[in-house]
Design a protein that fits this description.
With 162 residues, this protein is an all-alpha fold. It is built from one helix and no strands. The chain has one helix at residues 9-159.
């Protein structure tokens, strides 16, 4: 390989025409192989993308099912809370009714006690009035007797009998 071959311009021209005539065929084979490789790669990429899309759709479907399940659980929890709220409201209503009933009973007892106390006070007032009349009679009798005694003593003294 160490020798250099000298070519004439006509030989170079002939080689140039030969290369130009066959270059597209040679490159076509290379490009055709490369195009086939690229096409195969594109097909594989497209298939992989299709597989990925299907997997994503399956994942979305599973997520949708999961969201539906979560929604159902939330609805169940909401229903439970509503039921509990209703139950608590009913209990409060029962407690309110009991308090109202107890208040009514206590009002009746206080009214009865007030009536009883009023009767006692009226009875005591009557007894005090009776005692006052009774003591007034005796005070009147005693006053009259003292008046008679005093008048009788004055009359005796006037008559000199004393």
């Amino acid at each position: 390989m160490g020798q250099i071959m000298e070519l004439s311009p006509e030989q170079l021209e002939s080689i140039g025409r030969y290369v130009r005539g066959n270059l597209s065929a040679w490159l076509g084979e290379i490009y055709t192989q490369r195009d086939m490789q690229l096409t195969e790669r594109m097909v594989r990429v497209e298939e992989e993308l299709k597989t990925q899309r299907e997997l994503m759709q399956q994942g979305f479907a599973l997520m949708e099912k999961r969201f539906e399940q979560v929604d159902k659980r939330f609805e169940t929890v909401d229903k439970r809370f509503e039921d509990m709220a209703k139950s608590i409201d009913q209990r409060f209503q029962q407690v309110d009714k009991r308090f109202e009933h107890m208040a009514a009973i206590m009002d009746q007892r206080f009214e009865h006690m007030a009536t009883s106390m009023d009767q006692r006070f009226e009875s005591m007032d009557k007894r005090f009035e009776d005692m006052h009349r009774y003591s007034n009679r005796w005070f009147t009798v005693i006053t009259i007797m003292l008046g008679i005694i005093t008048l009788g003593g004055g009359i005796l003294g006037y008559l000199g009998l004393q």
